[in-house]
Amino acid sequence: MTAARRGKRTVLHTDNRSHRKWRSPALAWLLAVVFVGGVPDRTLAEVKPFSANFKTREMAVTGGTLHIRVGGAGRAVLLLHGFGDTGDMWQPLAEMLIKDHTVIVPDLRGMGLSSHPEGGYEKTSQARDIAKILDELKADRVALVTHDIGNMVGYAFAAQFPDRVTRWAVMDAPFPGLGTWEQQLLNPLVWHFNFRGPDVERLVAGRERILLDRFYNELSANPAGIDEQTRRHYAALYARPGAIHNAFGGQFAAFSKDAEENKALFAKVGKLRMPVLAIGGDHSYGAAMKTEVEAIASNVQGAVIANSGHWIMEEQPQQAITAIAEFLRKEQ
Predict the structure, then answer these.
(1) Is the residue at 165 inside a domain?
(2) Which of 148, 146, 142 is nearest to 162 (CA)?
(3) Which residues pair with 146 in a beta bridge?
(4) DSSP H helical segments within the chain, as ranges?
(5) DSSP letters along 130-143, please?
(6) What letter does residue 273 receive in the DSSP assignment?
(7) 279 exposed, middle or buried (CB, 10 Å; 0-12, 13-18, 19+)?
(8) Does residue 6 sit within a domain?
(9) Which of 102, 188, 304, 310 has the most neighbouring CB atoms within 10 Å?
(10) Over the stretch 128-158, which tens digit does the pLDDT of each residue have?
């Protein structure tokens, strides 16, 4: 979960003065970044069920199970979601990719319909669990598509198993311990990184919709672009027993350990070499997402989604699908 830009005023992970200073070098390469779809997509992207072409499985991982949707045939694509969403966010992209790919869509550990173990939320551990699931599905190599916390699990997977990742589309969130991570921790908009504990859970219990509305409203280009059905859908999933506890006390609480492990991984493997597409919403990371990813990868291209904040698949799904599909076609 990241901070966003609101309108013309940039508030990306640091105070306005330091952010303007940090972004000024971006002008030199800004025109080289691909801007996708200048016309806003005003179609509300309500959450739709996956079609009958997908089968669901509860697959064993260390200390629990992951809820997995699998469909199609051909080159494998793994789609990883983040906080405020579940694997359901990928439905429109998955239905398009299934025509010529094997599409694998998990709910991350402790999220959505996956089980709620107490530990194991370090992203390196989650990545190893993903590797075991891919082994069971006989998917030796995959293209990655990730968002938010999914980016963090994606990096841990790509750094530990680089030969298993053909290419990676990464959307609108940083990597613990790498790039500008330390700067971004100073921004008050990421207060939720340390929002956890039993009293926090008592405060949130029964008010999950209010909590999620804060993120949808503050981190979007236009809050109205995230429709009522989508908000109800995810509020119900995050109201499930253990969901908030595992999100804040599991996924977010692991960030400090993730930062240590990522630094060690980077020191060991250096920059990733597979092609990477860095996607940012123009009211969130924007073109700066390319710079963020260039800290960890050597073959990076960028795409900016117009009229979007952090919630790219909810706010501008068609632009995102177009950019990702074009990027994946280059694998052929």
Answers:
(1) yes
(2) 142
(3) 80, 170
(4) 16-23, 27-30, 91-97, 123-136, 149-160, 181-184, 198-204, 208-218, 228-238, 243-246, 255-269, 288-294, 312-315, 317-329
(5) HHHHHHHTT--SEE
(6) -
(7) buried
(8) no
(9) 310
(10) 999 999 999 999 999 999 999 999 999 999 9
Across 165-169, 198-202, 279-283, least confident range: 198-202
C-alpha to C-alpha distance for 12 and 286, rounded to whole angstroms: 10
Domain residue limits at 57: 16-329
Instruction: Give domain status of residue 168, yes or no.
Output: yes
Please report where in the chains the tokens 């074009």 appear, as a residue. 326
State in Å, rounded, how far the first CA of the chain is from the last one.
32
CA angle, 72 then 45 then 207, to 5°: 110
**How far is residue 62's CA from residue 66's CA, in Å, rounded to a whole number?**
10
Q: Does a structural domain hold residue 86?
A: yes
pLDDT digits (tens, 9 = 90+) for 49-76: 999 999 999 999 999 999 999 999 999 9
Is the pLDDT score of 43 beyond 80? Answer: no
CATH number for the domain that contains residue 270: 3.40.50.1820
* Count: domains in the chain: 1
Among residues 11, 296, 51, the alpha carbon closest in space to that of 154 is found at 296
